[in-house]
Amino acid sequence: MEFLFNSLLELITQTSTNLPPDVRAAMGIALKQETPGTQSHQALSIMATNIDMAHEDQGPICQDTGMPTFIVHTPVGVNQLVIKKKIKEAVAEATRLGKLRPNSVDSLTGKNSGNNLGEETPVIHFEQWEHDEIEVKLVLKGGGCENKNIQYSLPCDLDHLGKAGRDLAGVRKCILHAVWQAQGQGCAPGALGVCIGSDRAHGYDLAKMQLFRTLDDVNPNPELAALEAEIVAEANRLGIGAMGLGGGVALIGCKIAAANRLPASFFVSVAYDCWAFRRLGIRMDATSGVITQWLYRDPERPVERMAKETGFPLTGREVILTPPLTAEMMRQLKVGDVVLIRGEMFTGRDAVHAYLMKNPPPVDLNGAVLYHCGPVMLKQGEEWFVKAAGPTTSSREEPYQADVLRNYGVKAVIGKGGMGKKTLAGLKECGAVYLHGVGGAAQFYARTVKKVLGVHLFDFGVPEAMWHLKVEDFMAIVTMDAHGNSLHAEVEQATGDVLETMKA
Ligand code: SF4
């Protein structure tokens, strides 16, 4: 097994940095179908640019490289303990090289292990099979989309859709509801893995397993094939748009399995994956561990560039923001304005927000820009470099954000997916704005960072620390302004109205 470690490291690197052809094709179709000039189209253009950048530089497509989940098939007689050990070594090395973000956090102490190893991480499933080779499939699914997974127990009552019964019509309603409730928070356009039936725990497993099907395959069960196609078509009429900014795309795929259930239970389990749908696989020689075949990749189909042009097409109407910012400046901004940030900003996510509830900030945040981001960082010599730095889901900071604005004078918050009523009221009270970045565009945003000026609260671990960054032309859209307007609330209401028409 002399090549096993290197083969696994290559699998992790390629999965993190290079989207499979079926996902690229689906994103290409979404880009063509979205109306040019809309914010949804702009977001898709940035995603396309980001996909190219990640591939060209072998950098993580998204800074959240998720819970590494391996599905391993081995011939009878192969030592699975050796494979498990090598997978763990390869995961630690990929983390050290900046291909994976340190993502394994002790649930009791909150401590990040720093190498993606810990209790039950990474996730590894073993199966034996009759073939001669070893197969390893890997999916990297981040927390933003993982948090939008949902499970229904039929019969139930659903927002906008009413009663969902124990039949395929009820299942259809659940899946449409799953898309609607995700809005942009799982970084739409997304892809769904669905399991009808089974029990609660295995239902979720089987839903996730559907994500190992290619987006362009056809379900062998004609009834499920029809439902998959119907869901994609209907979801894309909801008006969610890329990142929930409103528009004609919401889903790039829906894959459904049916499993037997207990007479008393009828679950519909939905695994929501984001556009940064990272899934690959390899077959290896069972003696040497050398790669004999890549899965999901067509050797006849070379990797093509996704974006027509690199970067964000500027219109000249962008508003330049140079911190420190004032309430007066922020009150001039309206929902829909595109801003370019030039100057300094601080990252801060879950741990930082919780810390700020009980402690003063380690830096002066008056007039500051606070970026909800858990970057991938690498230290070379004494200097830190950003390897990936897209926005994280902001709604987790909803309980804290208004207090942070009020107590410390932050004037702009950048994140993704939008925030709720409490934050909206806080923005109005304090003269501040919420700026929306493109989720998953980790390479695109990493390139706007010209220098890492410092780091605070480093004990929280790399993703949770407060990084002090100097950026140039960091693009974001005002989606919640200082006048009480929220694009997210508008899109949720409008898409809810459309969902209501899909009751039948
Ligand atoms: S693209 Fe969005 S949802 Fe997906 S892993 Fe990245 S931040 Fe999370």
UniProtKB/TrEMBL annotation:
Instruction: Give the similarity note.
Output: Belongs to the class-I fumarase family.
Organism name = Paludibaculum fermentans
Give the protein's biological function.
Answer: Catalyzes the reversible hydration of fumarate to (S)-malate.
Keywords of this protein's UniProt record, alphabetized?
Answer: 4Fe-4S, Iron, Iron-sulfur, Lyase, Metal-binding
**Fe-S hydro-lyase tartrate dehydratase beta-type catalytic domain spans which residues?**
289-490
Q: Report whether Lyase shows up as a keyword of the record.
A: yes
Supply the EC number(s): 4.2.1.2
**Top EC class of this enzyme:** lyase
Subunit-level organization = Homodimer.
Q: Which Pfam families match?
A: Fumerase, Fumerase_C
**Catalysed reactions listed for this entry:** (S)-malate = fumarate + H2O
Note the superkingdom of the native organism: Bacteria
**Where is each Fe-S hydro-lyase tartrate dehydratase alpha-type catalytic domain found?**
9-281
Q: Name one GO molecular function term.
A: 4 iron, 4 sulfur cluster binding
Cofactor(s) needed, names only, are:
[4Fe-4S] cluster
GO BP terms: namely: generation of precursor metabolites and energy
* This protein's name: Fumarate hydratase class I
Q: What NCBIfam families does the entry give?
A: ttdA_fumA_fumB, ttdB_fumA_fumB
This protein's record includes keyword 4Fe-4S: yes
From the broadest rank down, the organism's phylogenetic lineage runs:
Bacteria, Pseudomonadati, Acidobacteriota, Terriglobia, Bryobacterales
